[in-house]
């Protein structure tokens, strides 16, 4: 049976990540799209808009489109209504991270009726090299460093510029890239204790340096959303100096034992693929539950609560 797929929020995230996966998936057919700007939605959908319902009405989207599966790709502050409405309609829902711009709304979604049908797009915990990284880790306490850099909106070019609005986004680089980074750290090392956080601006920061304590040792999280270099590396260094590096940009684990190389060149799609496969009955255990996403968001909120602003902050 072919599953009916719909999207709420036809922006750049949907266009670059969700759309290519669903249009190539034999178990799904795209039937409906909901966006505040129908013309913009049709432009983003391109040829995929032919023959599907494109509407600005969430009610029409759900009652006429009748999707079995819904991707919620709206700005962060607009997740709650479509997620709750789609769950109430009986659909399975994949929500973009974070759960919401506001922690109270995130908790509401994580505890909503039907939340067992809700998943969140946090893909890097599923990276094929995570087991190899864990296997290669040196014994004993480590100094852990995760560095995440992107070129930001210079290359991203969002359809609407909500990323620069603190109320809509819920923050800056920490809630944006930090959600991915912290989820990966928690997956590998367990739940940390936040120690300190510095940001380069209040409201919507572009650079973050945070310190955390894990059972495995001290960790430094470094994020730069306006870098000239794209990169995501996780390094663990033992007291002996032995180091293990998970380099997601290059798709490598490098350690004293040698180099292991990934086959999947699009690891950012792992959570989308896993969700669609799980709902279609093709896979199990490849989704991020809302409770797991909430754990990440609560950690982000704790870091923001004690963050110091340093306009000269560098990594």
UniProtKB/TrEMBL annotation:
Q: Which residues form the GFO/IDH/MocA-like oxidoreductase domain?
A: 154-217
Highest taxon listed in the record's lineage: Bacteria
The record's keywords, sorted A to Z, are: Oxidoreductase
- Record has Oxidoreductase as a keyword: yes
> Gfo/Idh/MocA-like oxidoreductase N-terminal domain: from which residue to which, for each copy?
3-114
Q: Which family does it belong to?
A: Belongs to the Gfo/Idh/MocA family.
Q: What is this protein called?
A: Dehydrogenase
